[in-house]
Structures are given as C-alpha cells and as structure tokens.
Amino acid sequence: MSxxxxxxxxLPGSGKSTYLAGLGVTPISSDAIRQLLADDATDQSIHxxxxxxxxxxxxxxxxxxxxxxxxxxxxxTPGERAPYIQIARAYGxxxxxxxxxxxxxxxxxxxxxxxxxxxxxALMEMSAKLQPPTESEGFDTVIRID
Length: 146
What we know:
It is a single chain. By secondary structure, the protein is α/β, with parallel strands linked by helices. The protein has six helices and five strands. α2 packs across α3, α3 packs parallel to α4 and α5 runs antiparallel to α6. The longest helix is centred in the middle third of the chain and has 17 residues. The protein is globular. The model has no long low-confidence stretch (mean pLDDT 95).
C-alpha cells in the first residue's frame, strides 16, 4: 500500500483544522510550526522557514512509511501546492487535495469568532488569490468540502 499526502486548500475560517480534528488526525500544521519556531502562531515573517520545516517533516514521515500525512495550511495557489506533488512523485506516494470551498462571507463571519483573528483585509486578499486545486496540476484526487 502506498503512502498518501493530503493537502488542505482553503481560506482561514473555511474549516480545515476543525475538519482534521474531527478526523482525529495530527496534521503537519503551518500554525503549529510557527508556534514551535517563533512562539507565535501568527508570525508571518518566518513563512519560508515554516514551509521548509513542513516539507522536512513530511519527508521524514514518508521515510517512516506513515500511511497518511495531512498538510494543514491554506495552500492557495498551484505554486504553493507544487512542492507536495513533487515530493509525492519522488516517494511514489499518492497526493490528494481537500478543497474547502467555503464562501468568503462565511469565512469572514467565522473569522471573528476565532481565537486568532486574521485581519479582514488579509482574508479578502487571500480570497482573490485562491485557485481551486485540480487533478491537472498533479493531484491524484481532489475532494471538495463545502
């Protein structure tokens, strides 16, 4: 049986982390890595370091032959998702996208109730940048969650 990498795609407030918690899994989370590295889950100044760490941890799990690894971050563009597809191909793994197709208005409303609020302007910029994942970019499967 082949290992599978599951990449979440969606705006803050779309339910990615909540969904994964409901599955009872421990994802490799950009927020958790920010907290570990900088003692601040909101620190955006270490973006490159955070994602390098996420990819390192993913490679370690694949080397240990863990069956499924969940990558929890917004992953808004094909460029942000491409490293996971490349890693999957290098390890002979499957790669799936979980696309949280939730309207901006709902994400903005949920955002106000979060412990870590994303500035509404930033959320709107992210929404404009969001490109839904497709199998043509290299995913074996794209699952839409709304």
